[in-house]
Structures are given as C-alpha cells and as structure tokens.
From TrEMBL:
Start and end residues of each PBP domain: 32-325
Record's keyword annotation contains Ribosomal protein: no
Organism (species): Streptomyces litchfieldiae
Keyword Transport found: yes
Taxonomy, superkingdom: Bacteria
UniProt protein name: Phosphate-binding protein
Classification via NCBIfam families: 3a0107s03 (TIGR00975)
Assigned keywords, A-Z: Phosphate transport, Transport
Similarity comment: family membership: Belongs to the PstS family.
Family annotation (CDD domains): PBP2_PstS (cd13565)
SUPFAM superfamilies reported for this sequence: Periplasmic binding protein-like II
InterPro entries on file: ABC_phos-bd_PstS, PBP_domain, Phosphate-bind_PstS
Gene: pstS
C-alpha cells in the first residue's frame, strides 16, 4: 500500500485557544476555558466525518467538557436540506451554498447565512486489487470508465498509461455515491472541467444520473465497502476512507501531465493553488505542479441570527478551535486532510464571528 505523508501541523493562527487558555467571543472579550456548555447539532457531508468525529470527541472531552456536539453524516445533499429547513444548528457540504440556496437561507431566519471552509481533502480513486496500487489514470479514462466505454483493466487506454504493469483481463466495476454527495460534486466537477463529453452527458452536481451498469453505495463508507467487496471494484471516496479500509489507490495525471499520488502533501499543494474570494465561494480546478487534481474543501453553514447566546458562543468557539489548535491540525493530518494556511485561517476566523452577530 502507498505511504501517507503527514505534513507538520500549522502553528496556531491565534494563541487564544490553547488548552487551559481563553478564546475570543463576538465582541472580543475573553471566555475562560471550561465555562461554555450546551449542545450543538449538525449534519451533512460524510467526506469530513472521520475528522469531525475526532474533533467533536476531543473538544467535548478535553476542551469544553460541559458541551456536546452531535454531527450526523447524512451526505452533503442532506446537510444542505436540513440546514435550509432550520432543523440543525449548522450544516456541512463539499459544495458551497449558491445563489438560490443563499436566498432561501435568508428567508429562513430573516438574516444571511454564514459559510466558510474548514479543511481540504482529496477525493481518491480506490481499487479492489492491491496489485493495482499506484495505477495511473487520467480524467478522460475515468470518465470513460464511468460511462462504460472502458470496461476492462487491460483496455489499451489504461495499458498506455501503465507500461510494464501486468494489467488483469478483468471487468472494472465502477462504484458511485447513491445519495446526494459533496464528494460526488468534487469528482464530477473535476470530470466536467477536464472532459468535454462528461459535461455534455452528465455535468457536475451532488446527484448524477449515472450509467445503469455502475454500482451505488450510500456515503463514502458505502462506496469503500462496495469497492472492497466486488472483484474489479473501482470507486471515488475521501482519502480517509481509503486509508481506513486499506484500499489501493490510483495516481491521477494532473494539468501538467504529472501522475500524482494522493498524499497529504499533494492535497496541500492543490489547495494552495485555489483562488479564494471574500465570499469563500470557490472550486479547486486546473491543478498542476505537485498538486493532486481531485481536491475539494468542506464548508460549514450557520446563520447571522436566531441562536440563543449559549448555542452561538459554542458554535463560534468550536469552529475557531478547529482552526487554531495544534491538536485539531494534527488530527486532520493523521486522517489525510489538509489544514488551511495561516492567512486563510485568519480570514475564516473573522467570518466565524458573523455567527449570530445580528
């Protein structure tokens, strides 16, 4: 299996959140550690679920022991739906809220939504066969696999990319997400930007009308399971799910023609190429250099109003803690996620202060 490269955790963007210290509130006053309490509910993407599980457990056990955070990994589509129906305190997705959704959010509570990225991650192509670990694939070949134009591992297009590799004369069993998925959005956007026919026939989105000869799985865990249980299985999952299921992964050719392994360093390199505007609505496209080309971000959604003081303080503190504590960064790296750089963290922390600011 491939080796995971863990990047050193970035130093805290603000020293106010070290364990035993204080954190800032919306008005800049200090909050002494151990004084916050309450319960947060959130739902959404399975993409960051392993990391969110680590973060919430550590925060509730070591940081604010009177606080609980219940995150339900229902998929990005479900997270957006539950956020816009105002049934959770925060939502999560690998796709930012777009114009029509922001308009709906503004009507829900009579104030704007707040959305901000918290982490980057790779969408990897996982393989059933360990002998295929490091298989080189391009966007065009991936698109033709999912469109069933390429159906065998020994297809000439794959053989050309992998000279000297003994490719099995085996059917490829492509697996996709069957639920509304931000991981699907990242994967399908990559194919849409790189492969003309994919944009014409499938396009990008959280829900795709997949070819009928492909398999479906619920959540990243369902896709990983289907890849592992089906001979010839191939599917797209967040990197942490490939790691936890000990699945082989493919190298993907990026914009500069480099076949890149989905390591943490390669994910970080891709994230650093993204141009991130003030409204945090961005995609990570056309990645070259040392960057892994199928990279996405995870966004958190909240509101500018409508929370009680306890909930608002806990929301601001928890998400600020995830960005400023060394333990939180280390957990991200260990699971294959790329923490944001200091400049972006500072911008996001400022955005977090908009939560319940009205």
């Amino acid at each position: 299996m491939r080796n995971r490269l863990v990047r050193a955790a970035a130093p805290a963007a603000a020293a106010v959140l070290l364990l035993g210290g204080c954190s800032g509130t919306d008005d800049g006053s200090a909050v002494t550690r151990g004084t916050l309490s309450g319960q947060l509910t959130g739902s959404g993407a399975t993409f960051p679920a392993p990391l969110f599980d680590e973060w919430t457990a550590y925060y509730s056990t070591h940081v604010e022991t009177r606080a609980t955070i219940d995150y339900r990994a229902v998929g990005s589509g479900g997270g957006i739906e539950q956020f816009l129906s105002d049934t959770v305190d925060f939502g999560s997705s690998e796709r930012y809220l777009q114009g029509s959704e922001l308009a709906i959010a503004g009507d829900v509570r009579g104030c704007p939504a707040v959305q901000f990225p918290v982490v980057f991650g790779a969408v990897v192509v996982a393989l059933n066969d360990d002998a295929l670990d490091g298989l080189v694939l391009t966007a065009d070949v991936l698109a033709r696999i999912y469109d069933r134009r390429i159906t065998r591992y020994d297809d000439p297009a794959i053989a050309e990319l992998n000279p000297g590799l003994d490719l099995p004369a085996e059917e490829i069993r492509p697996v996709h997400r069957s639920d509304g998925s931000g991981t699907t959005y990242v994967f399908s956007r990559y194919l849409t930007t790189e492969v003309p026919f994919w944009g014409d026939e499938y396009a990008e989105g959280t829900d795709i009308d997949w070819h009928p000869d492909t398999l479906g799985g619920d959540g990243n865990e369902g896709v990983a399971r289907a890849v592992g249980e089906n001979s010839g299985g191939l599917g797209y999952v967040n990197q942490s799910y490939a790691l936890s299921n000990d699945l082989a992964t493919a190298r993907i050719v990026n914009e500069d023609g480099v076949a890149v392994e989905p390591t943490l360093d390669a994910t970080t390199a891709a994230s650093e190429e993204a141009e991130i505007p003030d409204d945090f609505q961005f995609s990570i496209d056309d990645i070259g250099g040392a960057g892994y080309p199928i990279t996405g971000a995870n966004w958190i959604f909240a509101y500018e109003c409508g929370y009680d003081d306890e909930t608002a303080a806990l929301l601001r503190d928890f998400w600020t803690w995830t960005l400023t504590d060394a333990t939180a960064d280390a957990a991200a790296g260990d699971l294959g996620y790329a923490p944001m750089n200091l400049e972006l963290k500072d911008r996001v922390i400022e955005e977090i202060q908009r939560i319940d600011s009205r």
